[in-house]
Design goal:
Number of domains: 1
Order of helices and strands: HEEHHEEEEEHE
Shape: globular
Number of helices: 4
Structural class: alpha+beta
CATH superfamily: endopeptidase domain like (from Nostoc punctiforme)
CATH architecture: Alpha-Beta Complex
Distance between the termini: 28 Å
Helix content: 25-40%
Strand order of the largest sheet: 3-8-4-5-6-7
Strand content: 15-25%
Length: 143
């Protein structure tokens, strides 16, 4: 058998129970306030939220979205699993060359949970929402 650019998943070590645990922890914080630079339930920014949730699950990850993006193994959008981190730019296609400006946690069924500055609270959004689809940069597996 020849390996190549097919539809085979390259994810050999995905930990589904840890992914489920991360999602369960993350959704507990839905509705909690946004705060620039925030890393606690008193207020989260996007990467503060992801690093807090992962720490609660027993995994230390970097604090910033850019460092989190560089830390993990790249995952295609079609192979997203619960607990993967999803990243976004702020400038559509031109933003693809820059570090990500936003991060959230994939929770399944085309949805992710994140701490957006607009709206002021941790919330769940659809990846295929027009805004998020246009600004999607990529995803990583840190499990």
């Amino acid at each position: 058998m020849i390996a190549g650019c097919g539809s085979f998943s390259k994810r050999k070590h995905y930990n589904s129970s840890l992914g489920e645990k991360i999602v369960k922890i993350a959704v507990r914080y839905k509705g909690f306030p946004y705060k620039y630079g925030g890393t606690t339930p008193k207020g989260f920014d996007c990467s503060g939220f992801t690093s807090y949730v992962f720490k609660k699950a027993g995994i230390e990850i970097p604090r910033t979205a850019g460092a989190q993006y560089r830390q993990g193994s790249s995952v295609s959008k079609s192979d997203l699993k619960k607990g993967d981190l999803v990243f976004f730019t702020r400038w559509g296609l031109i933003g693809k060359i820059f570090s990500p400006g936003h991060v959230g946690i994939y929770i399944g069924n085309d949805r992710f949970i994140h701490a957006p500055s607009k709206g002021g609270k941790v919330r769940i959004d659809l990846l295929n929402n027009v805004y998020w689809k246009r600004n999607y940069k990529g995803a990583v597996d840190l499990l």
